[in-house]
Amino acid sequence: QVELVESGGDSVQAGGSLKLSCTASVDIFSRCGMAWYREIPGEERELLATITADSASTYYADSVKGRFTISQDNAKNTAYLEMKDLKIEDTAVYYCRSVRTLLCPTLYWGQGTQVTVSS
Hints:
- The chain has no helices and ten strands.
- The protein has 119 residues and is mostly beta strands.
- Strand 5 (46-51) and strand 6 (58-60) form a beta hairpin.
- It has a six-stranded mixed sheet, with no helix packed on it. Strands 1-3-8-7 form a four-stranded antiparallel sheet, with no helix packed on it.
């Protein structure tokens, strides 16, 4: 059973920074890409960023491009989402999820971590 556990969520002021972590209970990062999503109550879950298993390729949604950076440390079984210049509209629950590949056919979701940005 694979578990993903997010951490690093907090309450910050607008313009501040946070770094979220997503740690897996077993080694999956060597074969799974990773993605970060966020969910605002009443809205659909939004894809923010993805990274391939070899970290060679990344994708960012326009809403976070230039402010958020996705990365992963396979040795630590951990993916990260570094967030800078946070805005009030970034307030949401943030989730990590594995990305399906031929070597990683199962989707794994974390439980979420709350990020609150205030003025």
